[in-house]
Records
---
Amino acid sequence: MAETSAEVAIIMGSQSDWPTMRHAAETLDALGVAYDARIISAHRTPDRLVAFAKGARAEGFKVIIAGAGGAAHLPGMAASMTPLPVFGVPVQSKALSGQDSLLSIVQMPAGIPVGTLAIGRSGAVNAALLAAAVLALADPALAERLDAWRAKQSAAVAERPSDEA
Ligand code: RP5
């Protein structure tokens, strides 16, 4: 749901991050939260990063989800140029299975926070849920949808394992 009124920005370092970051997008879709997904590379498109991060609040965004892999500087650099909350998703890299991405994103110096999630799909889904939880503080209807999402998740968990699954 890419809309001009989007409150969540999903940014990623490369097209190759989309198979991971689309899980954040799909989770926001399920919650009825508008987002705008963009490719912004800290290394290949630094000017695009500066323009986006410095203008993100004025554009109307409230939360940024930033996914990157390898030398994953995107979340931290974005956080350094915006007062908005930034949630970082370490994308699973080919060479080091995302350990490099995780450590690059999580070890921020005191003063510039990035809320760092798990490597890969779990991190992308949870970043979206956290973004929704932040927005839900000022949006009772979204808070209800978030409650319903969790209740549906709980209801989908069988009490006993099945040989069919
Ligand atoms: C990072 O480099 C991107 O976030 C991506 O995870 C990784 C590899 O990018 P590609 O070479 O696949 O474009 O900047």
---
Amino acid sequence: KLIANKIAAGEVVDRPVSVVKELVENAIDANASKIIVEIKEGGKTYIRITDDGIGIYESDVEIAFERHATSKIKDADDLNSILSLGFRGEALASIASVSQVELITKTEDSKTGTYLEIHGGEIIERKEIGCPKGTTFVIKNLFYNMPARYQFMKSNAVETGYISDLISKFALAYSNISFRFINNGTIVFTTSGSSSVINNIVSIYGKEIAKNMMYVSNRVKDISIEAYISKPTIARGNKKQQVFFVNGRYVKNKIISDAIEEAYKTLVKVNRFPICFIYLNIPPNRLDVNIHPTKTEIRFDDELYIKDFVVNTLRSKLLEENL
Ligand code: ADP
Ligand code: MG
């Protein structure tokens, strides 16, 4: 079983940022209002994620680390309308098999919390512990027992960049949650969790970028969009600064990036790659989130329709701005 988890880990966890992604998604699924992510050395030696969510019952703590253990799907129908970010029950089993994990967790109605330590999938220690409601995971020495995988990690700076990027995207996707990112003991940014997207853009990217963003929204029947796009007068961004969320989830999607390019191409000569943050909402049955295990790739059932919708929305704003 440990071997199976280690093999599965290769799919779910390939570098520190994928650990962070899984744990932050779990915190979001646990209804956290505050999530703190702390890393050291690019996350290779230390990742700590603290949330103030619902916590895990003492009787469920070990189960959570079992493969295919998920508390999030009640029946097969749920698969078609998944609202939680996790649903496969693979992340904790995978992460625990290739690192040294400490878990501290407490639910609202428990008097004491639980501490559990697992190294390479083996339980090392379990005890009662006093702690506030919520969950903290500490992941130490990722891939310490998988030298082949260890070697594939990039420099600390590069791995840190991936993580910083990811937390930024989470903070933008969930502006109702406060995110704090700490790197090697220094706070990189904190979002307030009660503020608008534009305030989060200030917290994360700075005032300069934020003050040059335009906002446009649109809705046609059950599909809606909110977009923050850089003013056409602002010289180029690049595709990396284009961030998309579909139904609140960060996604990579060529249809949306093509749509931006098309909208700008004809109207704005200097800048085909604006900085933009696009929030699209679409009924879940009109997209397929299940095509990739890490779920950043999605596919729309009617790609042309969505593309036109995005192009038209952005164009209307650009035209208005040019008048
Ligand atoms: P999944 O998210 O697909 O359900 P995971 O392996 O990521 O699977 O997590 C397993 C289970 O552990 C979750 O279904 C949830 O019940 C519990 N869990 C994990 N992280 C947290 C957390 N931060 N707060 C509360 N429960 C959690
Ligand atoms: Mg999960």
